[in-house]
Design a protein that fits this description.
Layout (H helix, E strand, L loop, with lengths): L4 E2 L2 E2 L12 H7 L10 H22 L5 H28 L3 H35 L9 H10 L7 H7 L7 H21 L10 E4 L2 E6 L3 E7 L8 E8 L19 H15 L27 E2 L2 H33 L3 E5 L5 E6 L23 E9 L19 H8 L5 H4 L4 H16 L2 H5 L5 E2 L6 E9 L17 H4 L8 H26 L3 H4 L5 E6 L2 E9 L2 E7 L6 E5 L8 H14 L4 H24 L3 E2 L6 H4 L8 E6 L6 E7 L4 E13 L2 E11 L2 H5 L39 H8 L5 H13 L8 H4 L5 E4 L5 H6 L13 E5 H4 L9 E10 L8 E8 L15 E5 L2 E4 L4 E6 L5 H28 L6 E5 L3 E7 L2 E8 L8 E8 L14 H5 L9 H4 L8 H32 L3 E7 L2 E6 L5 E6 L4 E6 L26 H11 L9 E4 L2 E5 L3 H25 L1
Parallel strand pairs: 7-11
Antiparallel strand pairs: 1-2, 3-4, 4-5, 5-6, 8-9, 9-10, 10-12, 13-14, 14-15, 15-16, 17-18, 18-19, 19-20, 20-21, 22-23, 23-24, 24-25, 25-28, 26-27, 27-28, 29-30, 30-31, 31-32, 33-34, 34-35, 35-36, 36-38, 37-38
Helix pairs in contact: 2-3, 8-9, 26-29, 29-31, 30-31
């Protein structure tokens, strides 16, 4: 008998019978459960891939590490990988029992499913019993019974049964197409006439019965309507997020652009819920027992539904959150690829802010029982924050709406708890877009007749919430011990923007780190070029910030061909140094590694470390050359510290080469910041206790160019060093100029970079031979030594100015015998205007080899190149204003000739005091037109003896010096004139006032007060004060001259005179009343009663019954009031202030105000005098 089966399982077959299923068949009937199970193959694959990725990373990063660091890194990787391999081995052992565990899990799932079926059967029986209890027997259907009896079939079958059993006739393709077109027409009408569309979703298309809204870089969503009725809402069909993942796309399959499955269903349900928020619930919905009835949400009066706005707000936040999660995943993956120790990734609780902290450092390890030491530098380099924020504040919630009438979106509720940026600053909509959105809202709201009939202005239920992804970079203050500038701590907005078309957090992080690295390396570059070591690394080409294979490196030239590069690891932030010289020493690697460790402990020591490395390298190269020539050299000799100071304060190291023929003499290679200096010294032994000390008896500096030839490249130093002991010789090379000239061709930076400390073997050999031949040296410099002036020997170099007077003298020894060079600060100590000379002054003794009378030529190069002008200047490039002075206008070199060697210093000082002051004055006057915006200041004449210039149009002054060697420092003579030419002989009684005033300069009366101003120091500042005072007081003295001349022509007793350079007085006939003009700050002039005092306001100098002192002018305040009314409304009134004791006005208004005030005072004085005569 055949067994019957139910649900695919035999009804009742005892186990062990012939027809019982086998165990394999029973196992196939069990459900397969994989919950919590991971395939062993995937686990092994991931382990192998991780090991391969780490090995690849090590292969890329280890070449830049030192040897100990590479070994330590490999050892750490082996230990970590071994632990993972052991864990994997244990898992493989456990996987042997995977089959038994899987079978047990399948049986458990089968039993749980069987238990569920039993519970469902019990519940079904219970529901059937509960449903049958109220059931009643229907009335007998007699008609149907008769139909069946007579016809044999049902003739009155219910339509519900027909529609359930009989399938409807399917639509034809034409009907389907027509239906879709009708739906599209309905959607098109609603979108154009009724629905409020966010301006961001204005790009839409209708097709295939759906409407597709596209928001660039956010999403594309398709919607459809539920029907053509007014109350039929929208439902969401599909959505696609418009972003592209950049960089490493490993694992990005977990972030699809078009969601599917449960994620799509969740988004669709949430979107449908927002679209139908104010729609009535479906009529066919079945409520569970005890579930409350769903109430329809009603719109408040005056509010119409805006479902598309709610959908846009939801999908916008969904898209941005999706992108932020992708960036977080990429950051976490970076941590697994070698960034783990140096990168910290944080996401806040609301998943809206992602914070990346880079260059994380481990805190210092504390010794047992002690507090942890304080780190010298911060433990992180900076933070990169990516956050989702509203670009404009969320619309306020109307107070009339209840909490159930409007549902806040997620972004709206967040904007209430956190202050949003101002809409003017961050709104993404342009003014045009905002106007179009407002017009759309007005037009579509205007069609709501049911709202307009009740007199309520319609408004949408929701507002568009514009959001943006804000990226902020905050470099840590003093990261790596460096405080970068605010300009370097900012990036352009486009560099920090999140590009949805290429989501790559690694690229963004590297861009920020690149900027931070550049700022730090730029700080080091500027510190080297402008800091204490600017003389070493300041010239162009010494320190360069370049890009090498995509990485920023600071290329530093040490000396000759030795170059070291400094880099910052973008992941760890560690500073590393490496040598890239063509012949890099093999043993320099550990030294550079030691320097790198020291710098990373305290990066601010980088300049000191570079300088130390530089001098060490220079000494090695010089010692190598010396050994190659077979010379005996010493890095240290038994000199005391004070003796070594004789080599100069700029000496950073030295190499002593002993002369074989003269053991007590040494050729010393002195290493300075800029170059080698070569000295010939003689030493003497001095025994102190058990040790013998060496003393430098004499020191002479050597000029390599003069010895070796013109092909030697020697660089000028920026000044002279004075040794501690008086009379030591300073025989360094000297060149005329401002210290920037370099012998040879090419630019300054190129020559210095190529020739810095490049010691040629032939040059060293010739220097050694020259020192042997010149143990006994010339004694010409003893003349300056007896006067206590430090000096040095330089190569003779005659300019055109000196050759004009020295053409008859020449010697074949001129090239071998040096001239003398002194510092301007020494020979001009105490002399006036010493700042006008360049630091070096050449003193050339002449004719000491001949029978003629010795002469001394002193050549001074002026700092201020000012060409002589005027009649005495002449047209030649070399002029001779006096017998002892020659001026080369091309090189700005003044040559002073002295025929008496014993008095050459005094004669030079006297002539210099006169010439230097005139040069300073001429230069300052020439620059006033541009420097102080005084366009009418013009230099008229300059010949090293006198300077004449116009301090304003038509008014000139001439300045000259006298008695420059007097104890008081000499004085100046000022001569004033008018620019109209020489004064003419005119009859003042018949000439008009303007003609008389045009004949002379009114400042002549103030000359005794003005010339003392130039005796102040510095001279340039004093000259500026003089010119400013002349310009500001011109209106005063001109008006006073007008008053004086007019009074003379009118026969009135009025006198004007100057009390000081800025205080002028008009004295009236009775000598008891006066009016003062005082110059104040900012070209303001105070016109006041002369009897008043500025130091005791409101008090007069004399009482009314005193006849000795000035008396107050009668009714002076009334006169001031009258003047005030008289000038009211004029241009001068804008610059006039009336005070208790007078009037304050601008110097340009003195003519109007002063003349009006004088005329009224004079009138009042006449009236008072007339009244006194009558009485």
């Amino acid at each position: 008998m055949e067994q019957e089966a139910m649900n695919g399982i035999l009804d009742s077959v005892p186990n062990g019978l012939p027809h019982s299923p086998s165990p394999e068949e029973l196992e196939r009937e069990l459900p397969l459960v994989h919950d919590g199970q991971v395939p062993l193959a995937e686990l092994v694959s991931r382990m192998v891939q991780a090991m391969y990725a780490e090995l690849t990373e090590l292969a890329e990063t280890m070449p830049h590490m030192s040897d100990p660091q590479r070994k330590r890194t490999i050892a750490d990787w082996v230990v970590k990988t071994k632990k993972q391999a052991v864990k994997l081995y244990a898992v493989v052992k456990w996987s042997r029992d995977a089959t038994v565990v899987q079978k047990a899990m399948n049986i458990t799932a089968f039993l749980m499913d069987q238990n569920r079926q039993f519970e469902e059967a019990i519940n079904g029986l219970k529901f059937a019993r509960d449903g049958l209890d109220p059931a009643r027997l229907r009335n007998h259907d007699l008609l149907t019974s008769l139909d069946v009896l007579t016809t044999g079939t049902y003739r009155r079958l219910p339509s519900a049964i027909k529609s359930f059993i009989i399938p409807p006739t399917p639509l034809s393709p034409e009907e389907i197409s027509r239906t879709l077109l009708d739906i599209e027409d309905v959607m098109r009408y609603r979108l154009r006439m009724q629905e409020l569309i966010p301006h961001e979703m204005r790009n839409y298309r209708i097709g295939d019965g759906r409407v597709f809204f596209t928001v660039p870089k956010l999403f594309e969503v398709s919607l459809c309507v539920k029907g053509a009725k007014q109350g039929d809402g929208w439902f969401m069909v599909d959505v696609e997020f418009l972003f592209t993942v950049g960089g490493d796309v490993t694992g990005m399959q977990e972030f699809p652009r078009r969601p599917g499955g449960l994620l799509k269903r969740h988004i669709a349900d949430e979107g449908d819920g927002r679209l139908g928020f104010y729609l009535p619930p479906p009529e066919d919905i079945t409520l569970a027992e005890g579930q409350p009835e769903i109430q329809r949400r009603e719109l408040p009066p005056g509010v119409f539904d805006a479902p598309l706005v709610r959908l846009y707000n939801f999908l916008q936040m969904m898209s941005m959150s999706y992108q932020l999660e992708i960036l977080w995943y990429q950051a976490e993956r970076l941590r697994t690829l070698g960034w783990g120790e140096y990168l910290k990734v944080d996401m806040n609780n609301d998943r809206r802010t992602l914070t990346l902290s880079y260059w994380i450092r481990k805190p210092p390890v504390a010794a047992p029982g002690r507090q942890p030491p304080r780190s010298r530098i911060p433990l992180l380099g900076g933070t990169l924050t990516i956050s989702i924020i509203p670009t404009q504040p969320a619309p306020p919630i109307p107070t009339a709406l209840s909490s159930q009438s409007v549902r806040l979106s997620q972004s709206q509720s967040h904007s209430q708890n956190k202050q949003s940026p101002s809409p003017a600053a961050n709104a993404r909509r342009s003014p045009k877009d905002r106007i179009l959105a407002e017009l759309q809202e007005r037009v579509k709201m205007g069609g709501r007749n049911q709202l307009q009939e009740v007199g309520v202005r319609p408004r949408p239920s929701d507002k568009v919430e514009s959001m943006q992804m804000l990226v902020t970079w905050e470099p840590q203050s003093s990261a790596l011990g460096i405080q970068i500038s605010p300009d370097d701590a900012t990036l352009p907005a486009e560099d920090l923007a999140i590009n949805a078309e290429e989501l790559d957090v690694e690229q963004l992080l590297r861009r920020v780190i690149w900027k931070h690295t550049r700022a730090i390396l730029t700080f080091f570059q500027l510190q080297l070029q402008r800091g204490p070591y600017r003389s070493v690394f300041g010239p162009p080409g010494e320190v360069q910030l370049i890009t090498d294979e995509g990485a920023l490196v600071l290329r530093t030239h040490l000396c000759a061909d030795e170059v070291v590069v400094i880099t910052i690891d973008p992941r760890s932030g560690r500073i590393s140094m490496r040598d890239i010289g063509d012949l890099a020493a093999a043993g320099r690697g550990p030294k550079l590694a030691s320097f790198s460790d020291t710098i990373n402990a305290n990066p601010i020591l980088l300049p000191n470390a570079l300088v130390g490395l530089r001098f060490n390298t220079i000494t090695d190269l010089a010692e190598q050359k010396s050994n190659y020539l077979g010379l005996r050299s010493y890095r240290q000799r038994n000199f005391s510290r004070d003796e070594l100071l004789k080599l100069g304060p700029t000496a950073r190291g030295s190499l002593f080469i002993q002369l074989a023929s003269f053991p007590s003499h040494y050729l010393v290679l002195v290493i300075t910041d800029e170059e080698f200096r070569y000295a010939l010294i003689s030493v003497k032994e001095r025994r102190e206790s058990l040790f013998t000390k060496l003393i430098m008896e004499d020191i002479g500096w050597l000029d390599v160019k003069r010895i070796h030839g013109d092909d030697a490249v020697i660089k000028q130093r920026s000044g002279l060093d004075t040794l501690g002991n008086l009379g030591q010789k300073h025989n360094r090379p000297f060149y005329e100029g401002d210290g920037s000239e370099i012998v040879g061709t090419g630019t300054v930076g190129e020559q210095r970079a190529s020739a810095s400390f490049r010691l040629d073997t032939q040059v060293l050999r010739e220097l050694y031979a020259y020192c042997c031949a010149r143990v006994a040296y010339t004694k010409v410099e003893m003349q300056l030594k007896s006067r206590g002036i430090a000096y040095k020997h330089v190569q003779p170099h005659y300019t055109a100015s000196s050759q004009a007077v020295l053409a008859h003298v020449h010697s074949s020894l001129a090239r071998s015998v040096p001239s003398l060079c002194v510092q301007a600060s020494d020979i001009l100590s105490g002399a006036p205007a010493a700042e006008a000379a360049m630091p070096n002054i050449r003193v050339i003794p002449l004719n000491w080899w001949s029978e003629q009378k010795p002469q001394v030529v002193t050549c001074v190069k002026l700092k201020y190149v000012q060409q002589p002008v005027g009649k005495r200047a002449g047209s030649s490039a070399v002029i001779r204003p006096s017998k002892r002075i020659i001026y080369d206008t091309r090189d700005a070199v003044v040559t002073f000739l002295s025929e008496d060697v014993d008095k050459c210093v005094d004669e030079f000082s006297e002539e210099w005091a006169r010439v230097s002051k005139m040069v300073v004055i001429a230069r300052e006057v020439a620059q006033m037109a541009t420097k102080h915006k005084w366009k009418d200041v013009q230099l008229l004449s300059f010949d090293l003896q006198t300077v004449e210039f116009a301090y304003t149009a038509g008014y000139n002054v001439s300045i000259s010096c006298v008695n420059q060697l007097s104890p008081t420092g000499g004085s100046f003579e000022l001569s004033f004139s008018r620019g109209t030419g020489a004064p003419e002989d005119i009859d003042e009684s018949t000439a008009d006032i303007e003609t008389i005033l045009a004949q002379y300069n009114p400042h002549e009366d103030v000359e005794p007060f003005l010339k003392d101003i130039l005796r102040q120091t510095p001279l340039a500042l004093a000259l500026h004060r003089l010119v400013a005072l002349l310009r500001e007081t011109l209106s005063i003295v001109a008006e006073l001259d007008y008053i004086r001349v007019k009074a003379q022509k009118d026969g009135e007793e009025v006198d004007t005179f100057a009390k000081t350079a800025s205080w002028f007085r008009v004295l009236y006939g009775d000598i008891r009343h006066a009016m003062d003009f005082r110059l104040m700050a900012n070209a303001q002039v105070l016109i006041m009663d002369g009897s008043n005092s500025l130091y005791h306001a409101g008090e007069s100098k004399a009482t009314s019954d005193s006849g000795l002192l000035l008396q107050p002018i009668p009714d002076f305040r009334t006169i001031v009031s009258e003047v005030r009314k008289e000038i009211a409304g004029s241009e001068a009134s804008r610059r006039v202030v009336f005070v208790d004791i007078g009037i304050i006005c601008h110097s340009s208004a003195v003519r109007v105000v002063g003349r009006a005030l004088h005329e009224k005072v004079l009138k009042r004085m006449k009236e008072a005098q007339a009244g006194a005569v009558k009485s």
